[in-house]
Design goal:
Helices cover 19% and strands 31% of the residues. It contains one helix and five strands. The protein has a five-stranded antiparallel beta sheet with strand order 1-5-4-3-2. It starts with a strand and ends with a helix. This is DUF397 domain-containing protein.
C-alpha cells in the first residue's frame, strides 16, 4: 500500500544509514497504526505505508 508523501510528517533516517549516498531509508513516527517508509535519496517518490505489526516483525528479524 502506498500514499503520497505528507508535508506534515516528520521523517528520520535509519541509524544504520551510511549517509554517503548509500542505501538510506527514512521512516515517519507518530502515525496511528502505520509506519510510512521512503527512500531518503528520492523523497518526492511515493511512500510505502506498512502496518505497525509488519514493521515490528521486519525490524525484529533484521536485528536478529
Amino acid at each position: 500500500m502506498s500514499t503520497p508523501n505528507g508535508a506534515a510528517q516528520k521523517w528520520r533516517k535509519s541509524s544504520y544509514s551510511t549517509g554517503d549516498g548509500g542505501n538510506c531509508v527514512e521512516v515517519a513516527d507518530g502515525l496511528h497504526g502505520v509506519v510510512p517508509v521512503r527512500d531518503s535519496k528520492d523523497p518526492q517518490r511515493r511512500t510505502l505505508v506498512v502496518p505497525v505489526s509488519s514493521w515490528v516483525a521486519l525490524t525484529s528479524t533484521v536485528k536478529r
